[in-house]
Design a protein that fits this description.
The protein has about 150 residues and is mainly alpha-helical. It contains 5 helices and no strands. Helix 1 crosses helix 3, helix 3 runs antiparallel to helix 4 and helix 4 packs antiparallel against helix 5. About 15% of the residues are buried.
Length: about 150
């Protein structure tokens, strides 16, 4: 479980960093605005310097990734159904990313950024639903094999 959380943290840090670099480079190349920053000014104002804000931002990406990875334990709970697993997973992960997106990053002030971020999370939930479904399907197949073996005896 800790390995899963650590991997989710590390992957999200790297991906968040790369996405922000790509956004900054693209905007600077297209608009020529060398002062552009992919982070909301309101977020940067929460910190004593822009560099600290950017570094904390990278850690926040990691925290979100750790939550998404760590909460996959829900899919290992075979006493609840797949739909319930998805709903619980959504609620638990949303308790992490919604406060970050709304209270810290303050993306509600930038509709394009908010909608693209929400779309990214929706895509992540889609992926996790597919992964969760495959886990559940594999478990059912394993149970069926065990039942078939016990019925043959």
């Amino acid at each position: 479980m800790l390995k899963r959380i650590y991997s989710g943290f590390a992957n999200s840090v790297v991906c968040g960093l790369l996405v922000n670099i790509l956004i900054n480079v693209a905007v600077v190349l297209i608009t020529g605005d060398k002062e552009f920053c992919a982070v909301a000014p309101e977020y940067i104002e929460l910190f004593p310097s822009a560099s600290i804000a950017i570094l904390v931002n990278i850690l926040l990406y990691g925290l979100i990734g750790a939550a998404f990875s760590g909460m996959t334990f829900i899919y290992e709970q075979d006493r609840i159904g797949f739909v319930a697993q998805n709903m619980i997973y959504f609620v638990l992960t949303a308790l992490v990313w919604i406060p970050i997106v709304m209270l810290i990053w303050q993306l509600q002030k930038y509709s394009e950024a908010l909608w693209s971020t929400v779309a990214g999370f929706a895509f992540t939930y889609l992926i996790m639903s597919i992964v969760g479904y495959r886990i559940t399907k594999r478990q059912v197949e394993e149970i069926n094999v065990m039942l078939d073996k016990s019925n043959l005896k």
